[in-house]
Design brief:
Order of helices and strands of chain A: HHHEEH
Radius of gyration of chain A: 16 Å
Strand content of chain A: 5-15%
Structural class of chain A: mainly alpha
Oligomer: homodimer
Shape of chain A: globular
Number of helices of chain A: 4
Distance between the termini of chain A: 33 Å
Helix content of chain A: 40-55%
Strand order of the largest sheet of chain A: 1-2
Chain lengths: 159, 159
């Protein structure tokens, strides 16, 4: 267990950091022309809409599982809703994340869980995996946007 | 100041997490054909070699500045060394990071510093910015590799 001087970052600051990333990810979704979100990619990769749906399928289900110690089967959504619907679900998951995160008991971040019955790890590593996966795929979205001739939102802007 | 129950992650675990990412980033550098590292990109973006040089210019100089409270002028390297030289510098910075990180006084992660005399922020946020920037640009490298017909290393493999 960490002691008083052993925090790199505390849970509230980590949530704020993630929500900053999520605001940027929302802007990247919004930067895509609606007809390109689920149709355009580079190098035969998944289009950005599919990557955003993956982010949605991980974020709230992961945090809910950590809170409740009950896991739904993990499934990446295969549907391709409209851009407005993706943004609506994004905003909904933003609110849910803000509600769920403070319900994680502080000691749990250092416990080991088997997320979705298949990904075993320390809870803070499971959460970092979700955040890092979002940053990773969003970086891919930047390339898609640039190759469409669209300037992506600045990486450093998180408000 | 955080108290005992307030760690999302402690400094040693955060360093281990970053070094896991850095092992993956090294594999992405190594996956590029030597003649493509500084010549190939998509959408008029910087080639992956330039992004790797940016990562090198941030990682150790940031952590050294946090330790010493003295900042060199920040400069992104504009040279294009050979792939072997990039990998050699990467390994050197891996060793330096392992040496420097434990010298960060635990309370400093929650202090505010003006990195390189121009980026003011909490130290943990400054460090997360370096890590996130690496993940972001590495994700772009995945697209470059795929568009070259090369399968990138798996994102989840960090050993």
């Amino acid at each position: 267990m960490p002691n008083a001087s052993d925090a790199f970052i505390d849970p509230a600051a980590m949530l704020a950091h993630w929500q900053g990333h999520r605001r940027l990810s929302r802007r990247v979704i919004d930067a895509f022309p609606a007809d390109k979100l689920f149709s355009y990619s580079v190098g035969d990769m998944r289009p950005f809409g599919a990557l955003a749906m993956e982010m949605l399928s991980m974020t709230v289900p992961m945090v809910r599982g950590i809170v409740n110690e009950k896991w739904d089967a993990f499934s990446t959504e295969r549907e391709s809703p409209s851009k407005q619907e993706v943004l609506r679900r994004w905003d909904e998951s933003t609110r849910q994340l803000d509600e769920l995160w403070p319900q994680i008991p502080p000691d749990r971040f250092h416990a080991t869980m088997n997320a979705f019955g298949q990904y075993e790890g320390k809870v803070n590593e499971l959460l970092l995996y979700c955040i890092d996966n979002e940053i990773h795929h969003r970086g891919q979205g930047y390339v898609y946007l640039r190759s469409l001739g669209i300037e992506p939102p600045p990486f450093y802007e998180r408000e």
